[in-house]
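stuck on this one:
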Amino acid sequence: MLVIAKEPVPGRVKTRLTPPFTPEEAAALAEAALADTLATLLRVPASRRVLVLQGRTGPWLPPGYAVVPQCGGGLDERIAAAFAGCTGPTLLVGMDTPQLTPGLLAPATGSDSWPPGRAWFGPAEDGGFWALGFAEPRPDLVLGVPMSTPDTGRLQRRRLREAGLDVRALPPLRDVDTAADAAEVAAARPGGRFAAAHARLAPGPVAGGRSR
């Protein structure tokens, strides 16, 4: 299992949450999302768990993970480099879907989930993807795919299919990018750290009908 993530530093993560959240609040939500994701992956079968990190670790990192630095370059290059360091079945997820559960990952984490030529793809509702996996890593199939666009997921999936891989889909999930995303994702997993952080930090009505 690979998790690709940024250190939750104010002003460097979740900038689309500001406003209504402050940079410090956005970073706190990012930290909670990452903590939920890492905790979930400890509950799924894996021979090795690796955090591919831009920045430094913090108290949000639980035991059980190896940590490697992200390479430079665009996101496609960083994802490709993460896969290049692996052999055998490998599934990568990001830090923006704290509603992730072992059940959602179950199709890709069973003993028979990785025959030769298999790829797993988790589409994001914004047109990207939240999960990508290979029975045998193929970094070349990620390099050059335009990232962070409405067509990213479609283009990445097409690249996998054109390579002759058997592409299986995981359920679509909503990334936390905007305040509306954060509210919906928090509601989807009310018992997580992200939901607790959102409940604590979300702007609420004040006197005069305005929000803080």
User: Anything to note?
Assistant: The first strand starts at residue 2 and ends at 6. Helices lie at 23-41, 75-84, 102-105, 152-162, 179-188, 193-201. Confidence is low (pLDDT under 50) at residues 205-212. The first helix runs from residue 23 to 41.
